[in-house]
Input
Amino acid sequence: MNAANLFGLCGAALVGFGLYGLVTNPEPLRKILAFNLLGSGVFLVFGVVSRRAAASGLGGDPVPQAMVITAIVVAFAATAMAIALVLRLLQETGRSTLNADNPGGTNTDRGNS
Amino acid sequence: MTILSVFDIGLAVLILGIGVWTIAAREAFAAVIGFVVYGLLLSIAWVRLSAVDVALTEAAIGGGMTGMLMLGAVARLRLAKGNDTRASLPVRLAAGVLCALVAAGLATAILSPPEAIPTLAPMVMENLAQSGLGNPVAGVLFVYRALDTLLEKVVLILALLGVWSLAPDSVWGGIPGLRLYAQRSSTLTFLAQLLPPLGIVVAIYMCWVGAKEPGGAFQGGTVLAAMWLLVMIAGLRSVPSIDQRWLRLLLVVGPVIFLAIGIAGMVLATAFLAYPAGYAKPLIVAVEFALTLSIGVALGLLAAGPPERVQRP
Output
C-alpha cells in the first residue's frame, strides 16, 4: 500500500468519526468541531483520489489542490459564522443547547428592543 | 518497509487517534486543543502528499485560526450549563454502524482505482508558461479558476457581515468583543513586540513567493491576521470599532482590485478575468498583495467576533 492510499483510508475513517460526533454529541460547539473533522476528512479523500492523476512530472494535480485551499477557507468562514451563532444563542437565552423541547432557560433578550 | 512508510503509518495512526480524541474527549477545552494538534499533523500529511500549498493553508487556517476561534468560544461557554443529555446507547450504536458504513464505502472507493483517470494537470502545465507563474497551484487559483478565488474572497466578507449582523442593535458599529490579556511586562507583551516585525516580513515573503513556489495570499494573509490579533490581545493596540472607514476600505480593497482587473480584462483582453498578454504576472502579483491585506483584516475580524460594546466618548 502506498502513502497516498494510506492517507486516503485515514481520510475515510476521519469522515466516519466526524459524522459520528456530529450526530451523537449534543453540544453545539462539539458539533462544529466534529463538522470540521468531517470536512478535513473529505478534503483528504478528495486530495488522495485526485492525486492518482499526478502526471506531467508533478507531485500532485494542481487543480484539486487549489480547490481544497478554497474549501479550507470557506469552511473556516462557515465555522466562524456558526460559532458566532452559538455565542449569540448563549447571549439571548443563557444556554448553549439545541434542545428545543426544554425551554427552561431564562430569556434575557438584551439587544433588539 | 522503508523508514518513510513507517513514518507515514505512524502519522496516520496519530491523526486517527487525535481525531477520535476530539470527538470523544469529555471536556470541550481538551477537544479543541486536540483539534489544533490534529490540524498541524494533518498539514504534515498534506506535505507527504506533495501538496505544500494545502499544507500551509491547513496549518494556518484549519488548525490555527479555527482553533483560536474555538478556544474563545469554549472560554465563553464554560459558564453556561448545558442540560444536554448524550444520545442513548441504541442511537449511538446505530449512528456508529451507519458512520462506519459511510467510511467503509469511501475506503472501497479509494482502493478501487478507476480505469481512465481524469486530470487537467497536463493542460495546466502546458499553458502555465504564458502566465509567467511558476507555481501551478497559484496558476489555477488566479488564472484558470480566478472566478472561484474572487468569489471565495466575497464569501469571507459575507461571513464577516453575517458575524457582525449578530450584534444587538445597540452596539452596531462598536468594538468587537475580543478577549484581551493586557498585563504589563508579561511574556505575551514581549512576544507581541518581538514577533510582528518578523511576521510581517514572513507574510510579505509568502505572498511574493506564492507566484513561483508554495505560498500565496491566503497564507500570507493568515500570518498578518495572527500578528494583528497578537498585538490586540496583548493590549498594545486597541481593537478598532467596526465602523472605521479605513477598516472597511482594507476589507474590500482586495476584491475590488481583483474585480476591476477582471472587468478591465473584458476590454483589454478577451474575457472577464482574462489578463492582457505579457501583463499577467505583474497583475496577479498586484492582486495577491491587495488580497493579502484584505484577507488579513477579514480573518482578524472574524476571529475577533461581533461587536459587543460601543466606543466611549
About this structure: The longest strand of chain B covers residues 307-309. The mean pLDDT of chain B is 86. Chain B has two domains: 1-77, 121-313. The longest helix of chain B spans residues 52-77.
